């Protein structure tokens, strides 16, 4: 498109030829006026298409974990669409009120507003959200959500509620860090995510869900000591 | 040793709102962060403090520059600890703090050590952190390690390097481009996500090179066994290649279509959907190509997963706009979705059905929708209302039930936007379906009896004033209108007075009664209402005698304000109170087109009510001021039109020149905007020598040289021509830039004493017929067309020859005539075989012109056009034909 119009602009003086009543006229030489957008600097015009090409890669705009009153538990934004904290809070509030009345406890639910696609899932007093652009593949977003949701479940050994999450917030932050990097999906497999978060080294790469009884007991003992100490 | 995160109450189990961060405070946590400096580090304690810091940041707390620096420096101390868990938190913390360049140096060596560590997890994370905070200079140092990491056998390390590469490509493209070979190797990786990240990076490295992308796609589409995400990416790249090679598809077989179709049988749902969506979005997709995609989407419709149903119905909804018949097979599944728990899905299903439904199913559908409307939000209702409007336009015979539906929902609760959407729809239906007029008007009348929105009341009153008098029994509307004068606020009362006056002007039988009503309005409490009543009583001859209303009174009451409101507003602001009255003729009439916003809202239907969309502030005022400040041009009179700037030089030449054509009644002024792009030169005495030998009717009368044109500060020079008064003379002008060039010493910025005279050839410039037509829109084309009358109508047919598309032909003719497209008719729906475009404008000499263009495809690419012109002057009507004929 762009190239074609550069060519038109270059040729339009030379190739002007008319069309007569009832006759066929020359299709290429017709453009009389220079295209209206000729003025802006060239780089400005390339930018949008650059951006478009960048968008070809599936991008996550944010991942939110809110409580049952819409308050922030842990959130991560990967896009400049919400530059200030108040913009972020406004978005969270909007998402929360819009989805609050729906039941997203068995299957992930989905909604669309303000040109964003939001997939979400609730458990106990926690609301999980993943947001993407309006043209994003909904199923990719849903797989990110499922990855996050299941990984948190594995990390917290199935007892997922706000209190557990807050008590293990360090692990939740690590979890968010392992799922998406700067908007690009890093990993969607919950086992792998939880494994990366929990394992103290990558080398014992056994999936988290298949940890041995001894390991599980060790972790349980550790957690018990921790809670006694506190 | 480990202290509690916060003090807890013993009975915390009962407390619902318990949080380990209860009562957390930034100052206290920053104090706690001092433990990072302890010689004997306690990893668990440090982790807890970092978690608190992250929690604060996450809750929207912000650190001052000093605080952030302090935290950053103490966090760097933690690299001494060997504790893996703590190191992970340190990585996350550094990313959150996004340190400044001089701070980054402190951690660089620690991170580089981790990058070469034996522990994979260290390597992967250190790469991500370092690439996030680094700048270009450091990047060259670590480039070697990154290249190795890309082909690392551990997938996590490879992915970390590749993803970092994608981010770095935005800031340091030249470095990342050097990694092509390694990235290419990673594309072949067995690890699913490595392949995905490598493919994304490789495509971005090569995206400027169309051939390379083409090669990449054709080699990869032959392979198999890829991760679903990588496969989705490949589908997107493939459709991009298809789009760009769209020109050579005459043979019928689309390249790569087989690949897309194959993906429909992939095992991952995201791939199936991505492929189906890609197929539906192909340019000029055929129904044969569509069928397999629609089939898989139809299966998704009955999935148990809401996300799949939503994705499918959203895509089908889009398809229904262009290929309604292709979607009809899904209608049964779609109807069951109306009761879907997820209201987004239900709304999309309803609107899709409305688009694909046939005449016989309308009534049944409306029944279902009525139940559905009560439990969805306003924004969804608006979507439904718009869909019903287009359905009604499609099946005018069904107007009765659809109009009833609209009037029912108009009575129910709803916000302004929703009510406005309904009113707009009724107005459009009244305008386009004559049989619906009387019922529609009565529905509107009933609505304003109990309408809380002043805007809607006044708009409806205005509309009643225009349409009401033309109905079979105008008297029945008077009651509704006069009720407004009693019951409403001043704005609505004033509107009602104007509407009464219009009935009085048009219906002689009602005149005496209208006069009585208007006289009562003379006692209103509001100035505006009284003023209007007085004004109308006088113009209509309210002294009791029933006389035929004069043509100029009708023009006053019904004529549209033919100037854009924005322009009027600007002129009024500039008007300084003085003896001289404000002259409405001095307001510029040109509507500045706004290509950007028009693109944003494609296919936006004209709303039936109100004025044409306001244009942005025009530059006409600025030009007019500029020109009238130059004494040579001050006597030329009022500026008729200024063209958009036309470039006379190629981009990136030594001197950039563009020209603006200013058209006056008897003169034309060329304004040359010049920019000197050579830092070592100063230009003086800049003029443009214009050769008008190919423009016989023009004679040069004045010019204004530009005294000096330093580097990079634009200046203007002007040349004025005289031409016969009011005649749309056309011609071609050749231009030569002449100036004295002086060398400038770049270090001191001083110019040398002596200069050399030089010339620079510019491109030719033409004054064309479109320069004599102003883009002036009308709010209601049909009304304007009918009131113009057929006295000076000229109709003829033209063959436009082969064209790429109908849209291209339409735009070409619009550009040629330089007129304002009305009612959104410049947008041609894709794949249509014929199109009608309405244009309006003002010809030089203030003659209104309306044009109706009917385009049709004749044979495969041949476009034929029927051109009908109406204007106030037959010479002008002929002139428009002349322009098209000689264009």
Give a structural overview.
The complex is a heterodimer of chains A (230) and B (887). Chain A is of the alpha+beta class and 230 residues long. Chain A contains eight helices and seven strands; from the N terminus they run ααββαβββαααββαα. Chain A is 43% helix and 16% strand. The longest helix of chain A is centred in the middle third of the chain and has 18 residues. The N and C termini of chain A lie far apart (66 Å). In chain A, 37% of the residues are buried. The N terminus of chain A is likely disordered. Chain B has 38 helices and 17 strands. Chain B has 887 residues and is an alpha+beta fold. About 4% of the residues of chain B have low confidence. In chain B, strands 1, 2, 3, 4, 6 and 8 form a six-stranded antiparallel beta sheet that branches. In chain B, strands 12, 13, 14, 15, 16 and 17 form a six-stranded antiparallel beta sheet that branches. In chain B, a hairpin with a 3-residue loop joins strand 16 and strand 17. Chain A: It holds the Pfam family Clat_adaptor_s. Chain A: Keywords: Cytoplasm, Cytoplasmic vesicle, ER-Golgi transport, Golgi apparatus, Membrane, Protein transport, Transport. Chain A: This is Coatomer subunit zeta. Chain A: It is found in: Cytoplasm; Golgi apparatus membrane; Cytoplasmic vesicle, COPI-coated vesicle membrane. Chain A: Belongs to the adaptor complexes small subunit family.
Give me a quick take on this structure.
Chain A has 230 residues and is of the alpha+beta class. In chain A, 43% of the residues lie in helices and 16% in strands.
């Amino acid at each position: 498109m762009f190239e074609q119009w550069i060519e038109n602009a270059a040729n339009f003086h030379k190739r002007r030829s008319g069309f007569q009543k009832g006759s066929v006229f020359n299709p290429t030489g017709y453009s009389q006026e220079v295209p209206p957008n000729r003025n802006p600097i060239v780089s400005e015009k390339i930018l949008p298409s650059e951006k478009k090409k960048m968008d070809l890669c599936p991008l996550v705009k944010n991942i939110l974990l809110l409580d049952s009153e819409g308050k922030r538990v842990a959130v991560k934004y990967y896009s400049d669409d919400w530059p200030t904290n108040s913009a972020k809070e406004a978005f969270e509030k909007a998402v929360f009120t819009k989805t609050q009345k729906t039941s997203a406890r068995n299957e992930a639910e989905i909604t669309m507003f303000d040109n964003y696609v939001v997939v979400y899932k609730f458990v106990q007093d926690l609301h999980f959200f993943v947001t993407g652009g309006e043209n994003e593949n909904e199923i990719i977003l849903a797989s990110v959500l499922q990855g996050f949701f299941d990984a948190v479940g594995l990390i917290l050994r199935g007892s997922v509620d706000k209190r557990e999450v807050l008590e293990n917030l360090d692990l939740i932050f690590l979890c968010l860090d392992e799922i998406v990097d700067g908007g690009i999906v890093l990993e969607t497999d919950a086992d792998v995510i939880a494994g990366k978060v929990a394992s103290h080294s990558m080398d014992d790469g056994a999936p988290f869900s298949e940890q041995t009884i001894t390991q599980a007991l060790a972790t349980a003992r550790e957690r018990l000591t921790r809670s006694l100490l506190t | 040793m480990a202290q509690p995160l916060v003090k807890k109450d013993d009975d915390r189990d009962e407390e619902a709102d318990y949080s380990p961060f209860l009562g957390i405070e930034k100052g206290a946590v920053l104090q706690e962060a001092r433990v990072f400096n302890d010689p004997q580090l306690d990893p668990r304690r440090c982790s807890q403090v970092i978690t608190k810091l992250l929690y604060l940041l996450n809750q929207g707390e912000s650190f001052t520059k000093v605080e952030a620096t302090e935290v950053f420096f103490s966090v760097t101390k933690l690299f001494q600890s060997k504790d893996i868990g703590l190191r992970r938190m340190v990585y996350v913390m550094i990313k959150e703090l996004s340190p400044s360049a001089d701070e980054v140096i402190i951690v660089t060596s620690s991170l580089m050590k981790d990058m070469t560590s034996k522990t994979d997890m260290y390597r992967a994370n250190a790469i991500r952190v370092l690439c996030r905070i680094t700048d270009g200079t450091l990047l060259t140092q670590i480039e070697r390690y990154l290249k190795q990491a890309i082909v690392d056998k551990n997938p996590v390390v490879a992915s970390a390097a590749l993803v970092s590469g994608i981010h770095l490509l935005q800031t340091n493209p030249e470095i990342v481009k050097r990694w092509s070979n390694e990235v290419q190797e990673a594309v072949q990786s067995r690890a699913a996500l490595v392949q995905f990240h490598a493919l994304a990076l490789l495509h971005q490295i090569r995206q400027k090179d169309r051939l390379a992308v083409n090669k990449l796609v054709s080699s990869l589409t032959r392979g198999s066994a890829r991760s679903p995400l990588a496969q989705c990416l490949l589908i997107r790249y493939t459709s991009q290649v298809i789009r760009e090679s769209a020109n050579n598809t005459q043979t019928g077989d689309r390249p790569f279509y087989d690949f897309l179709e194959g993906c429909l049988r992939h095992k991952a749902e995201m791939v199936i959907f991505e492929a189906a969506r890609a197929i539906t979005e192909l340019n000029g997709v055929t129904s044969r190509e569509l069928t397999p995609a629609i089939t898989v989407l139809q299966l998704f419709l009955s999935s148990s997963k809401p996300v799949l149903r939503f994705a499918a119905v959203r895509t089908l909804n889009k398809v229904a706009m262009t290929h309604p018949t292709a979607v009809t097979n899904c209608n049964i599944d779609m109807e069951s979705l109306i009761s879907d728990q997820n209201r987004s899905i239900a709304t999309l299903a309803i609107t899709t059905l409305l688009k694909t439904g046939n005449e016989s199913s309308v009534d049944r559908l409306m029944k279902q929708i009525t139940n559905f409307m009560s439990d969805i939000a306003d924004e969804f209702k608006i979507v439904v209302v718009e869909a019903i409007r287009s359905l009604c336009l499609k099946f005018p015979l069904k107007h009765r039930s659809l109009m009833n539906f609209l009037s029912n929902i108009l009575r129910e609760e709803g916000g302004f936007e929703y009510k406005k959407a309904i009113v707009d729809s009724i107005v459009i239906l009244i305008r386009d379906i004559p049989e619906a007029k009387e019922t529609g008007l009565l529905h509107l009348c009933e609505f304003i009896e109990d309408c809380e929105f002043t805007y809607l009341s006044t708009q409806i009153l205005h509309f009643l004033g225009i349409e009401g008098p033309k109905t079979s029994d105008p008297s029945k509307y008077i009651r509704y209108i006069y009720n407004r004068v009693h019951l409403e606020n001043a704005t609505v009362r004033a509107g009602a007075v104007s509407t009464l006056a219009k009935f009085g002007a048009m219906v002689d039988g009602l005149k005496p009664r209208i006069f009585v009503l208007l006289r009562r309005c003379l006692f209103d409490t509001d100035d505006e209402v009284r003023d209007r009543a007085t004004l109308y009583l006088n113009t209509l001859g309210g002294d009791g005698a029933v006389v035929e209303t004069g043509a100029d009174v009708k023009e006053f009451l019904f004529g549209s304000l033919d100037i854009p409101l924005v322009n009027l507003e600007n002129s009024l602001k500039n008007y300084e109170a003085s003896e001289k009255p404000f002259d409405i003729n001095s307001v510029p009439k040109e509507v500045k087109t706004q290509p950007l916003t028009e693109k944003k809202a494609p296919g936006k239907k004209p709303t039936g009510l109100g004025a044409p969309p306001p244009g942005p502030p025009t530059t006409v005022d600025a030009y007019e001021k500029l020109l009238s400040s130059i004494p040579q041009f001050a006597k030329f009179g009022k500026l008729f039109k200024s063209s958009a700037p036309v470039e006379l030089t190629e981009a990136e030449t030594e001197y950039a020149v563009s020209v603006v054509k200013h058209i006056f009644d008897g003169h034309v002024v060329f304004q040359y905007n010049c920019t000197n792009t050579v830092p070592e030169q100063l230009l003086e005495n800049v003029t443009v020598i214009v050769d008008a030998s190919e423009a016989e009717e023009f004679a040069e009368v004045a010019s204004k040289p530009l005294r000096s044109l330093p580097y990079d500060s634009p200046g203007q020079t002007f040349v004025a021509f005289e031409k016969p008064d009011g005649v749309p003379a056309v011609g071609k002008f050749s231009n030569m830039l002449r100036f004295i060039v002086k060398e400038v010493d770049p270090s001191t910025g001083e110019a040398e004493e002596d200069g050399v005279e030089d010339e620079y050839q510019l491109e030719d410039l033409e004054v064309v017929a479109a320069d004599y037509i102003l883009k002036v829109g009308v709010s209601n084309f049909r009304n304007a067309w009918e009131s113009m009358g057929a006295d000076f109508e000229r109709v003829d047919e033209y063959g436009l020859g082969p064209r790429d598309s109908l849209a291209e032909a339409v735009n070409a003719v619009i550009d040629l005539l330089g007129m304002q497209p009305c009612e959104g008719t410049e947008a041609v729906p894709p794949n249509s075989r014929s199109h009608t475009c309405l244009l309006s404008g003002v010809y030089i000499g203030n003659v209104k012109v309306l044009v109706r263009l009917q385009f049709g495809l004749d044979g495969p690419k041949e476009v034929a056009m029927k051109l009908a012109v109406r204007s106030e002057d037959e010479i002008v009507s002929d002139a428009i034909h002349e322009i098209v004929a000689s264009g």
